[in-house]
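Work Package 3 committed the consortium to producing structural models of liganded targets before the mid-term review. Because experimental data for this complex are still outstanding, the team generated a predictive model from sequence and the ligand definition alone, so that downstream docking and mutagenesis planning could proceed in parallel. The input record is reproduced below exactly as it was submitted to the modelling pipeline, together with the SMILES string for zinc ion.
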Amino acid sequence: MTLYQANRMLNFLLLPFLSFFIGCNDGKVNRANTKPTIVANKSKADTIKNVDTVKLVVSQPIQYDTTKKYIYLTFDDGPQNGTAACFELCKKLGVKATFFMVGQHASSTHLKQIVSDIKNNYPQTLLANHSTTHANGKYHYFYQHPQMAAEDFYLAQKTLNVPFKIIRLPGNTSWVREGKLRSNGLTKPVCQILDSVGYNVIGWDLEWNFNHKNANPVESAATMIKRVSNYLEKNSLNVPNHLVILTHDRMFRNQNYTDSLSKFISMLQQNKNYVFETVDHYPGLKKLN
Ligand SMILES: [Zn+2]
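The resulting structure, written out as tokens with the ligand in place, is given here.
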């Protein structure tokens, strides 16, 4: 029996016990808080292992070329309407991208399959952790209960079968890397907990904004190209020469906006000084798995 087979066997034997403890934790959180809990219920926390072809994902360190600018294209909140379009486009254009996904959104076999496909397409696309509940939109409450928030992330890590300890906080740009923590007063406690158990937290430098009524992109592809160039020129970035771009899958669910994303990526690809990478290659991260 190889180490890998032994590990799988151990997981199989431990799964009922782990499920029991997760159930207990849910109960404890419910009793401890009179306000509605933000931890997902057990039915929504089923793992996606049944549609995942269980593949060991290993991140190989890269050598940075000091003459290049690194772009980390990230899509948040999937799996949702638009995720498949973004994923197919990235594959078609051969561009590396990261999908920060929400455990609770993987609510059907079809959506779980998209999560699995993105994970198994590594190293081109990377699946990363964007919580189980997305704080149910109650960010203040979520971050004021840092232990509960941390457990929300641990649950997503397990249910989505996320390969690396890489998180993006819902509704907040904070950063946790090796020996470095950049957050505000609200998110600092959860960042400290996540840091203490080996997680990296990735924020963003530049957002492609969306209209909050219809989820359509606010800026055109051409405007975003200019903004990318300006940000890289000014180098007002979390790490110089490394630009993290935030977008949301749902912005590109309609064909005309998928085309807009396609134009944006294709134009950036034409600049030979730009290199697209997944966020596991962002500088200064802690050990990933
Ligand atoms: Zn989000």
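Reviewers should note the following from the model. The pocket of zinc ion is lined by residues 76-77, 130, 134, 170 (CB under 6 Å). These observations will guide the Year 2 experiments.
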